[in-house]
Amino acid sequence: MSSRADAPIGVFDSGVGGLTVARAILDQLPGEQLRYVGDTAHGPYGPLPIAEARRHTLAVTDQLVADGVKLLVIACNTASAACLRDARERYDVPVVEVIVPAVRRAVATTRNGRIGVIGTLGTIRSRAYEDAFAAAPDVRVTSVACPRFAEFVERGNTSGRQVLGLAQSYLEPLQRADVDTLVLGCTHYPLLTGVLQIVMGDGVTLVSSAEETAKDVFRVLTELDLLRGSLAEPAHEFLATGPAEPFTRLARRFLGPELGAVLGSPARAFSLDEPQPAPPDVATGSRYGPSLSGSVNGSTPAAAATPHER
């Protein structure tokens, strides 16, 4: 086994949403090590201009690659839309994203050929999903921006009357379009599954990119002979560029109670625009911001919008 195979997989998101992807990777590849960075100091990225989302994304992904990750997962739809091509040209490690995997699953799932996509303003305006669906000309795609969903998830508010009312408003165009498959075009949205299913009804299949993205990670690592073969317990790092405590609280909802075994570093935020050296008592990687670093026992932590039609 090469030393590169023992390197961690880097996972990046604008906040906590990418933890759904991290969870799926650890379920499918329990022996792998993860280094996760959530840019909570600047996210959610949805309302940001594409150029700003790109700048923040590359600031973090540059550091992940410099730190030696063997594969990079951009687990944020807005970031993928903003700079996927740049990232693949920029780095000498494979880059996996979340848009095409979700499209692939949706096309395989739909029965009536009518697919809905919900996402941030940035993702929907980019038309990245429409571009990805172009390879399936027989499907009709209706896209709706849901600009407030991600901020609700970041605050831990994923149920209740306010979120339900918001969902009813956002999803009404998709109900009128008679979609039978709904792509959750933001990795924050799986935490809203209960509300989304109530509004759309049991006849609509919700598609998250997490599991399909994890399959792509497995495929790429296998093709490049980079699967970790060590029997040593994997060590994972979960880091945030903003305050650590709210990130920790929400991370437990994604990854399970085992996250309690992960040690936290001092909550000190560093600017991504002007990196500062890490103090000696902070784990490697804390240059991104406050970190939650450590290994977990066992191998895996439990871990009004205008619609667009194509």
From TrEMBL:
Q: Output the Pfam families linked to this UniProt entry.
A: Asp_Glu_race
**Its domain of life?**
Bacteria
Query: Record's PROSITE patterns?
Result: ASP_GLU_RACEMASE_1, ASP_GLU_RACEMASE_2
Task: Outline the segment boundaries, as ranges, of region: Disordered.
Answer: 270-310
EC number(s) per entry: 5.1.1.3
Q: Does the keyword Phosphoprotein apply?
A: no
Q: So where's the catalytic machinery, residue-wise?
A: C76, C186
Reactions that this protein is recorded to catalyse: L-glutamate = D-glutamate
Which residues take part in binding substrate? D13, S14, Y45, G46, N77, T78, T187, H188
What are its GO biological-process terms? cell wall organization; peptidoglycan biosynthetic process; regulation of cell shape
State the UniProt keywords alphabetically: Cell shape, Cell wall biogenesis/degradation, Isomerase, Peptidoglycan synthesis
Pathway given for this chain reads: Cell wall biogenesis; peptidoglycan biosynthesis
Keyword Lipoprotein belongs to the record: no
Molecular-function annotations in GO: glutamate racemase activity
Alphabetized InterPro entries for the sequence = Asp/Glu/hydantoin_racemase, Asp/Glu_race, Asp/Glu_racemase_AS_1, Asp/Glu_racemase_AS_2, Glu_race
Its function, per the record, reads: Provides the (R)-glutamate required for cell wall biosynthesis.
To which protein family does this belong?
A: Belongs to the aspartate/glutamate racemases family.
What is the official name of this protein in its record? Glutamate racemase
Q: According to the entry, what is the taxonomic lineage of the organism?
A: Bacteria, Bacillati, Actinomycetota, Actinomycetes, Pseudonocardiales
